[in-house]
């Protein structure tokens, strides 16, 4: 009988402890703002390797790309685990696009078209430079395909944009390119 009584007390104490811990955790979560409410991009982490978005944000040569990614509301998507291969045009690459066309794409009413173009610069998976082969076709996030070619030791995308650098990131790799990729008309 004494064993049953002690067991009952122990179970009651464990139950009360669990309830108090649950209440404490729910109170904490109500008080503390949730990083997930703003998406993965809002997570503060100064120790880990940067994701593709944070790498681009830290580059003075990709301010136009970063502005476009923000306008297209793709920051959180590209901050997720991935893995992604991003073909990232430089500011100089965007300067080759007619100014009026670029300004038009940055308008709210053209967000879907901007998203399509930016998603044409992203592959799901990691394609390191040594993995890219002449004639290789890679499916992009917008369901279009790009074609890789090699000439004189250079890797070229769609015959128009050359990879000038490759930067690893926590959720993939960034290939810096000297041209903007335009998806084929659907």
TrEMBL record:
It comes from the Bacteria. Residues 1-24 form the signal peptide. InterPro entries: Adhesion/Biosynth-related (IPR050904), FAS1_dom_sf (IPR036378), FAS1_domain (IPR000782). Residues 49-181 form the FAS1 domain. PROSITE patterns: FAS1 (PS50213), PROKAR_LIPOPROTEIN (PS51257). It holds the Pfam family Fasciclin. The keyword Disulfide bond does not apply. SUPFAM superfamilies: FAS1 domain. One of its GO terms (cellular component) is extracellular space. Residues 26-45 are annotated as: Disordered. The keyword Nuclease does not apply. Keywords: Signal. Coiled coil: none annotated. PANTHER family: FI19380P1, PERIOSTIN-RELATED. This is Fasciclin. The lineage of its organism: Bacteria, Pseudomonadati, Bacteroidota, Chitinophagia, Chitinophagales.
């Amino acid at each position: 009988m004494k064993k049953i009584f002690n067991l009952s007390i122990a179970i009651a104490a464990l139950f009360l402890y669990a309830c108090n811990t649950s209440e404490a955790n729910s109170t904490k979560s109500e008080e503390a703002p949730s990083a997930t409410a703003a998406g993965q991009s809002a997570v503060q982490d100064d120790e880990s390797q940067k994701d593709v978005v944070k790498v681009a944000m830290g580059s003075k040569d990709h301010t136009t790309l970063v502005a476009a990614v923000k306008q297209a509301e793709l920051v959180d998507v590209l901050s997720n685990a991935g893995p992604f291969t991003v073909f990232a045009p430089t500011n100089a690459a965007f300067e080759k696009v007619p100014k009026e066309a670029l300004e038009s794409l940055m308008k709210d009413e053209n967000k879907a078209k901007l998203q399509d173009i930016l998603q044409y610069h992203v592959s799901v998976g990691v394609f390191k430079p040594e993995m890219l082969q002449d004639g290789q076709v890679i499916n992009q996030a917008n369901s279009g395909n790009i074609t890789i070619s090699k000439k004189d030791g250079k890797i070229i995308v769609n015959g128009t944009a050359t990879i000038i650098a490759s930067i690893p990131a926590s959720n993939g790799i960034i290939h810096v390119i000297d041209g903007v990729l335009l998806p084929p008309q659907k």
